[in-house]
Batch of 2 targets.
Target 1
Amino acid sequence: MCEKNGRIHSFQSMGAVDGPGLRCVVFMQGCPLRCVYCHNPDTWDYAGGTEISPTDMVKKILRYKPYIKKTGGVTVTGGEPLMQPAFTAELFRLLHEQEIHTALDTAGIGDLHQTQNVLAHTDLVLADVKFLSEQEYRRYCGGSFTAVVRFLDSVEEKGIPMWIRHVVIPGLNGREEDILALKEFLGKYKTVKKVELLPFRKLCLEKYEAIGIKFPLADVPECTKEQIDHLYRLLPSIWR
Ligand code: SF4
């Protein structure tokens, strides 16, 4: 496989929830984490998906340019886009040549040096902040929170706007004190423009069954709209 080619899981032409405006969304294949609430276990395997070059990906995207150019753009998500940094960096560079807005939806896990090449052509970072301690991050996501903090610091240094996403899981990270701790943690980042609290859902059960893995949170209740509305009130209105 050519170094800059990527393996993608899927492509959505008109997404409206992964960044501002109407967006093409590229779902990358492969993820090193194993978040207990993951909705996309079918993206974990690096060998899955289809191979594509950045140039061919851009050709596909350009068909939708009239719809996405004005207020939207392109979001690369996953899986984990930073595990394929050469592809993501080249895709974003080519999109910037076309004056198309680029958003990186990431857990912030990846080689920090190569990540810089991606950030050089990133207009917005959608950063998943899942848990706030090394111990919890290792236990519930199988990764290092220290690495996530290093990534967030790097985005801050570059002055790239960030939207933070936090999946609220009752009993794990959904108490008032958890959201207040999130508020305190994020307070040091001036580039945070928005914080999205996303309710834990179990719409992924069929996917887990299909690949023969037990969903770790099958017995945890879903998060209600009332719980989310209540927790939002603990956050500054400038982050809404
Ligand atoms: S980072 Fe995303 S794709 Fe990877 S395991 Fe976590 S939720 Fe799933």
Target 2
Amino acid sequence: MPLLLSAPVNRRSWLARFRRVRGASLAMCESLSPEEYRLQPCEEVSPPWWNLGHTSWFFMRNLLVPFGGQSEPEDDPYEYLLNSYYDSFGSRLPRAARGLVSRPTTDEIYTYRASVDRRMEELIATLDEERFEEFAEILAIGLQHEQQHQELFYTEIKYILAQNRPELRRPYTSCRGEGRTAEAPARRYVPFEGGLREFGHLDEGWCWDNELPVHRFFLTPYSLANRLVTCDEYLDFMADGGYANPLLWLDNGWQAAQREAWHAPLYWEQRYGGWWIWTLAGMRELIGEEPVCHVSYYEADAYARWRSQTFAGEQGARLPTEREWENAARIVGVPASAGPNSFPAGVPASAGSASFLDSGRLHPAAAVGVPASLGPEERLAIAQLHGELWQWTASYYEPYPGYRPFAGALAEYNGKFMDNQRVLRGGSCVTPRDHYRLSYRNFWPSTTRFQFTGIRLAQDAT
Ligand SMILES: [Fe+2]
């Protein structure tokens, strides 16, 4: 296993971090009703009870068992119930059945979580010094895994709560998630030179195996849109028959759109003569300047094709590759005026105004307007690169050249999914801020809509 570990460096720091991350998972579930813990409205959306249990099982299976932590009789059934996709650990509850079982009860899952926490804290305090470095590398993975599931939780509970009749829906949060609704900056494309560049996790600190190794790749000149596509801009695509024109769509996307009757992004509903959207703060009117979200790769791709065919000066508009996105993110967005960088390594200081989970907004914010008189540095400003919405890229999720997966069963964590999925970059309004890095590679099937996904366009240089 590559040594990816950085701080924390001592047991007390590990313990504090363990408690903080585990506590955040409990806090996000505080407002749930008993029913809301159990529902699985579609296979991709796991119920919260399972999310809480699975993240605990991960520590049990990958740390308590191999490092001699205390075992309990209660652990046995959870091997089957809470294994997500690790074939090397044996058979498991089918993913689509997580909402069908009434046992364990939610109370039993909380008891199990507390038991795992107690045993983990004991192991962190008492494990032999010779094995602690190896232990800590897997502990880091377990904590990052838990944070991934925290992000998943917000997308899952949004989908779960949306299933109710509109008049009976309750919001998850009272935070309205609005603000920063100033007029969106005029759309521009920011040019980037081509050349041989380095990609991957170039910075200090921890990263997933799929962000390594650092490697070189040749880019041809291109340009990247200065902000995400807004709801108003997406409405133009809809009004122009975007969902009814097969010439704009990849075939698999067209088939999915017909099969699932897509006619707008997920969570858009027509009411009182206008468009309303379901947010974690409830239903509200669409705000045109906000970035369009909850679109699949196929919708993003069709939108790009429509822009290419519709607007002079945008011929060839397309989604960026992940390396075009990464190169741009390394070059721009670090103005000297940005001030101290409070982000972990690899996240530009300019992301300070972005919406990550920590902002509490739970909804993407509109781009902040750029002054009419632009200095040379501001002309290169690209809004909403980090936080707000995961941005679909045209890149298939593939291993970087020389990729080496994590050792043992954790080789299943990322590597086996490098097939038939697309990479997304940038983090979102429900990504924990200290979980994110510039080199972070998210990935989902092209039909995915329930994640916080948005659209940024690119063009070849003319
Ligand atoms: Fe997981």
